[in-house]
């Protein structure tokens, strides 16, 4: 069996055997940099120091493109420190002390930058990234080799920057970055109402605060009165509302006003894959199984031919326990920007964590094809166990839709309940308690269709993309279906594993415009909208990808509901709404799991 080289190297790094820090501090300065259209963006530059002496020779530069303030003031509206690192820098100190300059840039229309935006992210950020890279690469303290880093929005921004094809951008390290804008805000036609609203509320609070407000954005150097910052903030009021854009774009190809441009497509790196590949920028993708962008990183890996590596751990949006991210980031940039022969090119593959089992490695995804079917056993007592055998009888069960059933808000779950407890989780190992028993389970699901396997006679390992194939009907012209996959341990504790959802009117599939792992690609196009049913019809959709060990003696549970309150806006909330689930040879409702036996695979 191949040794997981990245884990081995991380252990070396943790023992301090690989890198020697060259610097002990840094100095910060800020200024405006003018874009091609005259708009000025606020830029903070950090350069390393030794014994308070500024390093003068040119160095590689790593930068981040952020809407969350390149630098903040304290609760009294004062500069925190001349040399305070930027918020969400995630490793800038390690890079600075090992011989890199670092830059943080407020996105156009945010922070202290001027301008406004039509889309929250997209081609405008690509053009701005090109201009920033051009400026960074030509400064006297830069050696012309540029990299990027950052998570979430800052991760997605890196893919757009790669699409700019600036020759100085050599390597990026996007974490939890988005691939398909439509899938971020819609679950196959069901609007995730809390996500856009929460993001806009957050950025509006950050973005519209008057100069020198508590926790507000820091002005650039020499803007002591805040006059320039006040002028920049005034332009932010023209930003187009993300909530209005998303709510008015229910389809992947929805167009806003007379623009004849679909916001979802403009804001999706998925539509710029050729440009990203052409750049040949080296890409280190990182995500987590419980993150909203878990599949996104896999799609990037399968659709780009850049030098690339992918790590997926047992994380939500913020964690990286069991993985020394900062040292791995340093190793990545040292190889691609400093030409250090440290072996970073020897493990350009996928390293993924099987929850309950440990780290595994693969050169391709998925490592196993869809295999075993578990049929939803509709017994005379309504809900029987999950069964590997299809029933001979024709059965259907009708249940009322409970609009209070919920898994909690998307944003809350994506950010995780763990941040406090996981602070004690180490960078070198993954302890099971760091990710198990997350607390997310279906609530108010008494009227759901629920199927539970008998205690497992053997371990069952699922790695890949579970697929729901359901035959359903309703007394409504349109309705929603949610499928939740959970594990029940021997003590009865429930562990969330995965979920998937679809609005019935969005059931039409098309050939995927990119490598979608041979899974059905639900188009979500306006011309494929089908609101009417003619008796039971088949809904086929995938759940979030997963790598999970269901232990011997544990149980697999599938719950099917018609609502997910707190995160998804229902198609309607009419009293008397019902769902009918079918199970027979003609209408075989089932879940297909990609099971793997590592002993045989290895």
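^ Assign residues to that structure.
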């Amino acid at each position: 069996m191949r040794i997981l080289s990245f884990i081995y190297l991380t252990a070396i790094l943790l023992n301090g055997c690989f890198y020697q820090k060259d610097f002990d501090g840094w100095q910060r300065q800020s200024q405006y940099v003018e874009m091609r259209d005259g708009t000025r963006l606020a830029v903070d530059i950090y350069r390393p120091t030794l014994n308070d002496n500024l390093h003068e020779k040119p160095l590689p530069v790593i930068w981040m493109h952020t809407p969350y303030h390149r630098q903040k003031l304290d609760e009294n509206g004062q500069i925190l420190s001349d040399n305070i690192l930027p918020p969400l820098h995630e490793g800038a100190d390690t890079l600075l002390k090992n011989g890199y300059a670092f830059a943080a840039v407020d996105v156009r229309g945010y922070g202290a930058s001027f301008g406004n935006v039509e889309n929250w992210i997209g081609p405008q950020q690509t053009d701005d990234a090109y201009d920033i890279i051009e400026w960074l690469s030509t400064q006297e303290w830069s050696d012309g080799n540029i990299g990027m880093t950052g998570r979430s929005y800052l991760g997605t921004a890196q893919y757009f920057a790669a699409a700019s094809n600036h020759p100085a951008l050599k390597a990026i390290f996007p974490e939890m970055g988005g691939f398909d804008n439509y899938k971020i805000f819609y679950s196959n036609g069901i609007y995730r109402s809390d996500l856009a609203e929460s993001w806009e509320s957050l950025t509006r609070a950050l973005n519209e605060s008057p100069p020198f407000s508590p926790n507000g954005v820091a002005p650039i150097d020499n803007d002591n009165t805040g006059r320039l910052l006040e002028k920049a903030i005034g332009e932010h009021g023209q930003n187009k509302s993300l909530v209005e854009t998303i709510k008015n774009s229910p389809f992947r190809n929805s167009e806003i006003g007379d623009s004849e441009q679909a916001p979802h497509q403009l804001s999706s790196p998925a539509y710029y894959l050729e440009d990203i590949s052409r750049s040949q920028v080296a890409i280190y993708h990182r995500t987590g199984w419980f993150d909203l962008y878990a599949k996104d990183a896999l799609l990037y890996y399968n659709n780009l031919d850049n030098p690339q590596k992918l790590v997926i751990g047992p994380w939500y949006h913020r964690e990286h326990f069991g993985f020394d991210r900062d040292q791995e980031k340093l190793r990545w940039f040292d190889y691609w920007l400093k030409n250090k022969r440290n072996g970073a090119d020897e493990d350009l593959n996928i390293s993924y964590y099987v929850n309950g089992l440990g780290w595994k490695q693969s050169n391709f995804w998925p490592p196993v094809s869809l295999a075993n079917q578990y049929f939803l056993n509709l017994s005379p007592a309504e809900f029987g166990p999950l069964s590997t055998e299809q029933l001979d009888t024709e059965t259907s069960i009708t249940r009322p839709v409970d609009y209070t059933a919920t898994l909690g808000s998307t944003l809350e779950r994506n950010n995780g309940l763990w941040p406090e407890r996981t602070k004690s989780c180490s960078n070198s190992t993954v302890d099971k308690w760091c990710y198990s028993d997350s607390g997310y389970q279906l609530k108010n699901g008494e009227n759901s269709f629920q199927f539970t396997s008998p205690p497992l006679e053997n371990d069952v390992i699922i790695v890949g993309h579970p697929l729901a194939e359901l035959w359903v009907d309703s007394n409504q012209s349109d309705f929603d279906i949610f499928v939740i996959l959970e594990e029940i341990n021997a003590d009865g504790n429930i562990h969330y594993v995965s979920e998937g959802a679809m609005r019935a009117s969005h059931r039409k599939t098309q050939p995927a415009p990119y490598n979608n792992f041979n899974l059905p690609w639900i188009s979500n196009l306006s011309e494929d909208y089908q609101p009417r049913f003619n008796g039971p019809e088949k809904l086929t959709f995938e759940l979030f990808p997963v790598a999970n060990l269901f232990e011997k003696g544990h149980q697999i549970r599938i719950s099917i509901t018609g609502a997910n309150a707190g995160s998804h806006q229902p198609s309607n909330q009419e009293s008397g709404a019902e769902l009918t689930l079918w199970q027979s040879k003609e209408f075989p409702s089932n879940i297909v799991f990609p099971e793997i036996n590592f002993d045989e695979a290895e």
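The radius of gyration is 25 Å.
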